[in-house]
Specification:
With about 450 residues, this protein is of the alpha/beta class. Helix content is about 20%, strand content about 30%. It contains 11 helices and 34 strands. It binds uridine-diphosphate-N-acetylglucosamine and calcium ion. Calcium ion (CA) binds next to loops.
């Protein structure tokens, strides 16, 4: 169903105590405003309009296909919706008003409200029944259940404060009616603001039907401070983990796993306790992510084994059956099928061929303080432990690098390269050394 979404994001958000505008604070790795826009589009919004404060350059830079209306003064939710009119123009369709600080609203709930209006209601309000209604607008019903208005906490009488049916904040309406009603809203109230919620009483008094749709409290959770932000994150994480498990991912301790919302995890992946899968990850079927691993911007093929204690940074791109073990850091590096880096390694700006084996303590020296340089390691190459590969450098296919080497020039395919001082051995010298030390100090060696 076609409709326009008006997303209010001009509030000051002072309780966040942040230099970052509230709508850009992230939940599941995605800005809150983005969640509202995505949900609206998933429900079928053909147009999204964000209402922003004048000093909102950061938000404007972040937005792409969303139209912008500037609310010069923050005079309330009613005045905020009214400024969207100049962007929307003449429109005989349906508009839905959403808030940029309720990131967990689902497309289903949005669709349900739009459908109620399409089916003949003048306005449809998302309602919920919280354990504690304090602070929310109360939905006032007549004896027959007709919605007569929404009363904000500050204006509510004692009897109204006992009403448990609350306004979730989002509402759909016929667009022309929405703006006509807003023209009649005044700021004659305790806060001196133009309340969007006042259109409900005006519509009802004119004989229009106002519908409501009951939705889950967790969906409507408004983020006003960092405590709310953490609560929203917890709810979202639980949703993401449940979805992943339903799609075939095993997690022994799901509560300890963090998943960014844009990451894709294929079936039969096993995620051990205490793993962070940040933004932009794609984890191939049958892979195992062991405990305490941290992944971001990483692509893994099928049946990879990662960690424990692996750090995969953006640009890690592994084929199938790749093994990355403990205390390995990888950045902007492609690894061919079956490549292994099992312990204590840094690979940055590198390409590692299929079946190559990277020994413990291998470091690609990719940075000289000014530029970044590439390391190319051919298929089947064997890099001995504690090797420094000083980039730019190429190691040919199947070449072997002796342990402890510092490689500063290219090594051809099938070559062995060792860069190492020769070992000198003096027989019996250790015993002699101890003897002279003991006679001088009379001290026993510490065991
Ligand atoms: C609002 C509702 C209340 C509802 C609650 C649900 C009104 C008058 N009240 O109250 O009934 O129970 O949400 O969470 O609508 N904003 C602007 N410009 C403004 C003022 C606000 O863009 O001038 C934006 C804010 O950025 C925010 C949204 O509107 O995204 C909601 O504003 P807020 O002040 O948080 O409303 P509540 O007091 O929570
Ligand atoms: Ca709010």
């Amino acid at each position: 169903m076609e409709f326009t979404a008006i997303i209010l994001a001009a509030g000051k958000g002072t309780r966040m105590k942040s230099s970052l505008p509230k709508p850009l604070h992230r939940v599941g790795g995605h800005p809150m405003l983005g969640w509202s826009i995505d949900a609206a589009r998933a429900a079928g919004a053909t147009r999204t309009v964000a209402v922003l404060a004048p000093d909102s350059r950061d938000i404007q830079q972040w937005l792409d296909d969303t139209a912008i209306a500037i609310q010069q003064e923050q005079l309330g939710t009613g005045s905020a919706v009214a400024v969207a009119r100049e962007v929307i123009g003449r429109d005989d369709g349906i508009a839905i008003v959403m808030f940029a600080d309720t990131p967990l609203v689902t497309a289903n709930s949005i669709s349900a409200l739009v459908r109620q209006v399409a089916d003949g209601a003048a306005i449809a309000v998302a309602a919920f029944e919280p354990d504690d209604p304090t602070g929310y607008g109360r939905i006032v019903q007549g004896q027959d259940g007709t919605i007569e208005g929404i009363v904000e906490e500050r204006e509510a009488s004692e009897a109204q404060k006992r009403i448990n049916l609350c306004n979730g904040g989002i509402m759909a309406a016929k667009t022309p009616l929405l703006f006509d009603l807003l023209d009649r809203v005044t700021n004659d109230n305790a806060k001196g603001e133009y309340y969007l919620t006042d259109i409900v009483a005006l519509a009802s008094a004119d004989g229009h039907r106002v519908a409501h749709n009951l939705i889950d409290e967790t969906e409507i959770l408004g983020v006003n401070d960092r405590v709310d932000l953490a609560a929203a994150e917890a709810t979202l994480q639980s949703r993401l983990r449940t979805t992943a498990m339903q799609q075939g991912v095993t997690m022994a301790a799901p509560d300890t796993v963090f998943i960014a919302a844009d990451s894709v995890i294929e079936p039969d992946v096993i995620i051990e306790p205490h793993v962070v899968i940040g933004s932009g990850c794609h984890i191939g079927e049958g892979s195992i992510i062991r405990s305490f691993s941290h992944l971001e911007g990483t692509r893994l093929g099928a049946c990879c084994i990662i960690g424990p204690y692996a750090r995969l940074r953006p640009g890690t791109d592994a084929g199938d059956g790749v093994k990355i073990g403990n205390f390995v850091e990888i950045k902007k590096t492609k690894l061919g099928d079956g490549a292994k880096a099992n312990h204590l390694t840094y690979l940055g700006d590198a390409t590692v061929g299929a079946e190559a084996n990277i020994g413990a303590g291998t470091i690609t020296c990719n940075y000289d303080g000014f530029g970044k340089y590439e390391t190319l390691i051919g298929d089947g190459a064997f890099i001995g432990s504690n090797t420094a590969l000083v980039a730019p450098v190429t190691i040919g296919a199947r070449a072997i690098i002796g342990a402890g080497s510092t490689i500063t020039r290219n090594v051809g395919p099938d070559s062995i390269a060792v860069e190492r001082a020769h070992t000198s051995e003096r027989e019996g010298a250790a015993a002699k050394f101890r003897e002279t030390r003991q006679s001088k100090t009379k001290a026993k060696p510490r065991s």
